[in-house]
Amino acid sequence: MPSPPRPNDLRDLWRRLREHQDPVAREKLVLNYAPLVKWVAGRVAATLPPHVEEGDLISYGLVGLTTAVDRFDTTREVRFETYAVTRIRGAIIDELRSQDWVPRSVRQRAREIERTHAKLEHKLHRAPTDDEMAAALEMSVREFQDALVTVSQSTIHALDEMWSVGDSSGGDQVSLLDTIEDQHAPDPAAMLAEQDVRDQMRGAIERLPEREKVVIALYYYENLTLREIGEVLGVTESRASQLHTKAVLRLRARISPDDVAVA
Question: Which stretches are annotated as coiled coil (predicted)?
């Protein structure tokens, strides 16, 4: 097996790709960073039902890695790995969603939880408790928590999913957490939209209950698994999953006001 390229070799590969569109340099860069795809695919697979093959996720992620190599701006002070992980995960999620494999009942339940949370938060001026959510949804607390687990296992919900900004037919796509300006789409309107999403997300995270805020920080910034987060918080992996799902549904409800009819 050939040894991985040294830093100087990598810089030379990037230079050849940018200056000469060298296909050999492009291929070597993709191969060098391919382990990132397996790492991201493994993390995504851990949140999905068992019938979703990790090998399929890797093939979807390779498309995102190739796009990242083609579009990365080497003049910016951003590590390629940071940029690529967002693109890889986005490509995997986009492909899974295009297949529409999530049961309709689960999608409906997730939307119902989002809408109910937004209404209660508007009414109470604070995040609703599990008891209040369960009562509003006309179910027991145990049924509500079981519903969160079902949504967590069956719905692709990630803060780093790719969102379109600017014109819906030709605008760039950005991540909610790892937004990076694209050199090929310097549209001021799109840049303002990116900043708006980041500002909304920052404010929404600050308003989360403390434990959910910790879960978001550990999962998305420290790259801990739900099992590891459970150990940090002294709860089960299932409870950590519930906290993560509740946090993401709260955030989605707060930054998608057009989807929520607040009475």
Answer: none
CB 67 within 8 A of CB 180: no
> CA 248, CA 166: separation in Å to the nearest integer?
24
Gyration radius (Cα) of the chain, Å? 20
Give me the residue spans of the domains in the chain. Answer: 7-99, 104-259
pLDDT band at 189 (very low <50, low <70, confident <90, very high): low
Where are the extended beta strands (E) located within 165-261?
173-175
- By C-alpha distance, which of 158, 153, 148 is closest to 102? 153
What pLDDT sits at residue 69? 94
Residues in a beta bridge with 248:
none
Q: Which two tokens stand for residue 58?
A: 């890797």
Cα-based angle 95, 100, 103 (whole degrees, multiple of 5): 140
CATH class of 7-99: mainly alpha
Identify the three-state secondary structure at position 196: helix
CB 174 within 8 A of CB 197: yes
Bigger pLDDT: 1 vs 208? 208
pLDDT digit string, tens, across residues 40-75: 988 888 777 666 788 889 999 999 999 999 999 888
Which value, to the nearest 10 degrees, does the dihedral of the CA atoms of residues 248, 68, 35, 53 take? 60
What would the two tokens of residue 253 be? 């409800």
With 0.90 as the threshold, say if the pTM is over it: no
Q: What percent of the chain has pLDDT over 90?
A: 20
